[in-house]
Amino acid sequence: MKFYAIKSPSVQKIVTSWLECEKLTHGVKGCLFKSFATREDAESWLSGVSEIHGEGLRIYVDGSFTPDFDRAGWAFIAVENDKQIGAENGVTDLPAESRNIDGELTASLHALAWLKRMGKTGVICHDYEGIARWAKGEWKANKPIAIRYKEAVKEFPNAKFEKVPAHSGVKWNEAVDQLAKKAIADCKAREKAAKAAKTAKPATPAAAKPVVKTVENSAPTKTVKKEVPAQTKTPERMPSPGESLDLFG
Fold first, then answer.
1. Where are the alpha helices (DSSP H) in the chain?
2. HSE value, Cβ hemisphere, 13 Å, CA-based, for 110
3. 3-state secondary structure of 172
4. SUPFAM superfamilies, from UniProt (predicted)?
5. What is the pLDDT of residue 44?
6. Which string of b and e fits 158-181 if b means at least 16 CB within 10 Å?
7. Which pLDDT score, from 0 to 100, does residue 59 have?
8. What are the residues facing 36 on neighbouring strands?
9. CATH code for 57-190?
């Protein structure tokens, strides 16, 4: 059996017959309708379909998890009049105890904190049921992550929640899903780069070549001419008395 959710200016209804759905929607301007496998999903779509018309401030939250990474990704996108006015994403501080659920609950808390910081009121749109159930005290918290969430969400007593169907073509829900996945991919890339930089060996510096300095003497070289005294011939014999010798001959 299929459930057909119908939303129009005059009708908001769930029917189980295509013929009845066609009768209520054919030729109706501004009418939206969609089929679902369960009534719960049909009701969730009806309650969240107002985002298509851009009514009010809605914050879409989601979480993500991959087996090769120990933490969960989280993200939220704030939408007003069908336009994004804010967004954040990241990974959980602690290893994920419950896979993507850690990211879902963390995203909800970040979204509520953003609303408080901005002084706004809005609706938290989620596809994981526990976000609202634990916040409203409808589910018992057993695991540490659920206990921490249930305690932390008490800070936001006026929080409003709205469940939207997962992977059903709701534009902003699909967008926040991708943003949560991107948070993990970005964190893995940063950590990989940091590890590579830490383990990389420092480059060996090239041997320095000896520097030969040429010292130029700017003063001109002065040639000193040394006078050599003329040599005097030594006579082979001593002159006789009264005899003269030519010493320079």
1. 18-25, 39-48, 100-118, 130-135, 144-152, 171-199
2. 25
3. helix
4. L9 N-domain-like, Ribonuclease H-like
5. 75
6. ebbbbbbbeeeebebbebbbebbb
7. 95
8. 3
9. 3.30.420.10
- Full DSSP string of 64-109: E--TTSSS-EEEEEEEETTEEEEEEEEE-SS--SSTHHHHHHHHHH
In this prediction, residue 107 carries a pLDDT of 97
Return phi, psi of residue 28, to 5°: -90, 120
pTM of the model: 0.62
159 and 124 in contact (C-beta within 8 Å)? yes
Q: Is 194 left (phi over 0), alpha (psi -120 to 50) or beta?
A: alpha
Q: Average pLDDT for consecutive 10-residue bins of the chain (249 residues)?
A: 84 90 83 83 70 68 96 96 94 94 96 94 91 91 93 91 78 93 96 89 67 57 56 52 49
The amino acid at 95: P
